[in-house]
Amino acid sequence: ATKSSSLTGALRQPSWDGTVTQAQLQNLSLPQESRNVGGTRRFRVFMAADAPNLSLCKSVMSSVALGYPLPILLNWKGEFNRPEWHLAGSHIAKLESLHAAIEALLADPDDIAHDDDLAVLVDSYDVWFQLPPSVLIQRYHQINKDADRRIRDQWRETWRDGDDFPIAPPKQNIVVTSAKDCHPGPESGSHPHYDHWPQSPMPKFMYGPGTDKVSGPLFDSARKYKRVRPRCINSGMIMGTMGALRAALVRSKEKIAEAERTGRQLWSDQALLGEVIGDQELWREWARHLGATWDGDAAGHPLSGGLHRDVAPVARAALREGKNFEFGIGLDYAFSTIPPTCSAEEDGDFVALSDHKQVEAASERAGVVDGVRVRGVPTELLDTTPNAARDAIKYRDPLRDIAWGNVPLYTDFFFGTTPVGIHHNAYVDNLKVWRIDNWWERMWFHPHLRRLVSSHLILPQTGSGVRPIVRVANVSSDGVEVVYVPPASESQEKVVTVFEPARDVGEEALFEPISFDGICQKGKKPWFEELFGDKIGPLAL
Asked: Record's superkingdom (predicted)?
């Protein structure tokens, strides 16, 4: 029998009770596991931006100063008024453009990109980096390891006998930043099915006796979630392997097409990605149910037994249409990457991590219930292997002499975490605009910004190749060390590029360079005067 017929045989009977045979389980559409071998992998940064702006300039320059690969801009000078996108124009375009860029890179005949390469998409007008890319990459892998362990334990607790069950616990390859408020909900026209998402793994007493309770004035749309542990999506950062992102973005495009056909409201990229994750969680719920009812030959009877009614459409689509709903997407529950500051407006501040008295006083002001949770300088900045130390010397790392414990770093005192970056979406009392205007000089790198940017823009010496970003052990299937490096183009030219998708069949997509003047200058005052504040003049290498 064909795959289609074997999958749908049980469904031809209108009285199908949910039973699935071993053959049908084995024929379900599941994501192909990556080869995940050690060696060199590329790391790319994407930002969606449509016009020059000083806020965009700050986001880009914070990344350059810390040694991130020069970003690829999506949707530059884009048009977002397609009527079928409703209110979500630029948001939907962001995901569609990222998908097109990934497809173009993976299809390049010069083999410049691979499925296991890593990519991160960040909001471009309100995100500032404060820690180097080595920390972001290490935390990405640690988040995935922790998630894989939780999922594996959950599935094995559910199964009667998991050893011969044909569906293995999924592995995480995509990390999205989390939010305290589950927005947008069904009233927006989107259906993320938040009730089926996992609970936060953070401590249940994290905010004291009122943890997870909506409190304060209900009209205060931000502060009322202050004591809620994040478990929903904020799309300010999306990070994953190129192969995993491509698959998830294909599913997003399918949902866009479905919405266009039905005239359904599309609210935002956050809502769209939330729907993809919601379907994934419903599929996982069904898969765990199958494992729990597995007898060696069949599983799933009855479909309705102990399962929510929302699960049935996903189960039927997986069997009848061969649809895949597993994309390996999970959340950064611990606010360790680039978390939103909305609903956490007073939870963090800039501190020198080695100054215990300063950290203690700031924790008390924030209202932390059980003393200091911050444990000094992040270990990712301290743990240095011999190979990494040699890299720093050989490639003249501009950050190698930074005393990380003595510089002001934004830290969330409830999580006890110094995040990789700050997402300025704290809109209480117009804080977002105020902080973007007034906090720039508080960033630890600001007094050194011109020097750090200039140093990171210098091309490597002839024959030396690009400097490794980080070496990561114990993440590949073959046990070989993974070495993350910037795109190969940075050995010849370090420049921000604009992605221009192919306009017609047979044409190639383009990655065109753009100057800092092109992304930073808006208005009459020179951008470099506002950005650097040192009265030296234009940026010169």
From this structure: Eukaryota
